[in-house]
Design brief:
Elements: H1 3-16, H2 20-34, E1 59-63, H3 74-77, E2 83-87, E3 91-94, E4 99-100, E5 105-108, E6 117-120, E7 124-125, E8 130-135, E9 138-140, E10 153-154, E11 159-164, E12 167-169, E13 176-187, E14 190-192, E15 201-211, E16 214-216, E17 224-232, E18 235-237, E19 243-244, E20 252-257, E21 260-262, E22 274-275, E23 281-286, E24 289-291, E25 301-302, E26 310-311, H4 320-323, H5 328-338, H6 346-356
Parallel strand pairs: 1-2, 2-5, 3-6, 4-7, 5-8, 6-9, 7-10, 8-11, 9-12, 10-13, 11-13, 12-14, 13-15, 14-16, 15-17, 16-18, 17-20, 18-21, 19-22, 20-23, 21-24, 23-26
Antiparallel strand pairs: 24-25
Helix pairs in contact: 1-2
The structure holds 2-acetamido-2-deoxy-beta-D-glucopyranose (NAG) (2 copies).
One 2-acetamido-2-deoxy-beta-D-glucopyranose is lined by residues 53, 159-160, 182-183.
């Protein structure tokens, strides 16, 4: 039965309905039949995409120590599920071993006193967990970690996860590893300067929303997204390959709207903005720009041919167009101004400054120290 036929039927039944219970039943089934949510539970005001279903934790817990472990530390905070974590301290937490999150955790990095909070030296993992919200948090693995199989953030086989305004740098395996991850959003984040495999994010399963992120100076995977995907208002700078599906045999759909790809000194083939995308993929692409000339001016041209993907004439997901409120040029301005953890620290400022050179500076690196920043390249917080 189509929607108008349903509505007609409901009207007729409404005419003859007598009880409140009947009315409630009608309203509920009408919302369900139209595919509308009954309640709009959001991870936080302004959360978007598939990960916005995360509700995180509700039990308040305050991090009071930057130590690696012990009472009041970040490791202590995330060891029990259900916690809504705030910070009374700011600065780097220098980890000696990876930290595994529990399920149903919210990390409110924005509550730390200025200049904010983050970790250095090891992986943060939400592997196999669910219902996680991480905001305004810096995750910088770097070569303090000798384990080359670990990433800055790992959410393998996790579900219902949203990272928002995070700064994920110096990842060794990937910046973000998300194989088998379901219902994910990565939004308003900086994903930059991976030092090992030099990869951004690797996600399989999904669905996933990549929204208003700044991806800088990686070899590839910005992201690798073997999933039904929304990729909206992202900026990718100084890539060797950017949006990839790695010629997977999997059949996926991709809404790719109003993104800006900008070549930099390490970009050898600007046309690898879309990489290894075969005929198993379907893509809706609109408003994407490629600035390939490294001339210090933002002057991209249309880039809406998504490899060999079958062309969709409308988005696969009905929410995509509504999320694409910014043009690619406006997304560039917005991401430059606001992406990453707030307030912006030395590492993020350095990353953003390379983007603003619009082709002149930027390098794909193997050691965070080569940024020239203090504290062995981690900068000070
Ligand atoms: C979690 O803590 C943050 C920061 O204090 C607060 O804004 C938010 O309302 C809390 N959320 C829940 C579900 O308790
Ligand atoms: C993913 O989100 C949808 C709602 O959009 C929900 O129905 C589904 O159960 C979620 N998947 C998991 C694994 O939680």
């Amino acid at each position: 039965m189509n929607t108008s036929a349903r509505l007609l039927r409901y009207e007729r039944i409404l005419d003859s309905s007598r009880t409140m219970a009947q009315l409630m039943y009608l309203l509920v089934s009408l919302f369900l039949s139209l595919g509308l949510p009954l309640v709009s539970a959001l991870a936080f005001p302004g959360a978007v995409g598939f990960g916005s279903v995360a509700t995180g934790g509700t039990t308040p817990f305050v991090v009071t120590s930057l130590a690696d472990s012990g009472t009041g530390t970040f490791r202590d905070a995330v060891s029990v599920s259900g916690r809504n974590i705030t910070f009374a301290v700011s600065g780097y937490i220098n980890l000696a071993s990876p930290v595994s999150l529990s399920s149903s955790i919210t990390v409110n990095g924005q509550t730390a006193p200025s200049p904010g909070v983050g970790i250095m030296g090891r992986e943060i993992s939400a592997s196999d967990k669910s219902n996680i919200i991480i905001r305004n948090f810096r995750m910088r693995q770097g070569n303090l970690d000798s384990d080359t199989g670990k990433s800055a953030f790992n959410m393998g086989h996790a579900s219902n996860v949203i990272l928002d305004h995070c700064s994920v740098e110096y990842g060794v395996w990937d910046s973000i590893d998300a194989v088998g991850a379901v219902n994910v959003t990565v939004s308003n984040s900086i994903i930059a300067l991976p030092i090992g495999q030099q990869f951004g994010a690797h996600l399989e399963t999904g669905p996933v929303t990549w929204y208003r992120n700044l991806w800088v100076s990686a070899h590839n995977r910005q992201p690798l997204t073997k999933a039904n995907s929304q990729y909206i208002n992202n900026v990718v700078y100084n890539y060797q390959a950017a949006y990839t599906v790695a010629n997977t045999g999997g059949l996926f759909s991709h809404d790719i709207i109003n993104n800006y790809f900008i070549a930099g000194p390490s970009t050898t083939s600007a046309n690898d903005d879309y990489f290894q995308i075969n005929t198993n993929q379907k893509a809706f692409a609109s408003g994407n720009l490629l600035d390939s000339n490294k001339d210090g001016v933002l002057n991209g041209v249309a880039a809406n041919t998504i490899g060999s993907a079958v062309v969709l004439t409308s988005p696969w997901n009905p929410t995509s167009q509504g999320l694409a409120t910014l043009s690619a040029a406006a997304a560039y301005a917005s991401v430059i101004a606001t992406a990453g953890a707030s307030p912006r620290d030395q590492v993020d400022a350095f990353v953003v400054s390379t983007v603003q050179s619009l082709g002149k500076t930027g390098a794909i690196i193997t050691n965070q120290a080569s940024t020239g920043l203090g504290n062995n390249g981690y900068g000070t917080l």
